[in-house]
Write a structure and sequence with these properties.
Largest sheet: 2 strands, antiparallel
Number of domains: 1
CATH architecture: 2-Layer Sandwich
Structural class: alpha+beta
Strand order of the largest sheet: 1-4
Mean pLDDT: 93
Strand content: 15-25%
Helix content: 10-25%
Number of strands: 4
CATH topology: Alpha-Beta Plaits
């Protein structure tokens, strides 16, 4: 399982980027967060810091 970010719900606030202990979240060229799947360790921290509900674990 890995975190997925809904680009339509992401506001590019960056809160998930700073909190990810695996450094698995970055911004793409459109300033939307995305998960580097090979780095994601399925910890779920990003779920709790995203106030917009844009992140799920699938």
């Amino acid at each position: 399982m890995v975190a997925k970010i809904n680009a339509d719900a992401c506001t590019s606030c960056g809160s998930c980027i700073g909190e990810c202990p695996a450094c698995a979240i970055s911004l793409n060229d459109n300033d939307v967060s995305f998960v580097v799947e090979d780095k994601c360790n399925d910890c779920g921290v990003c779920l709790y810091v995203c106030v917009h509900g844009a992140i799920t674990i699938v």
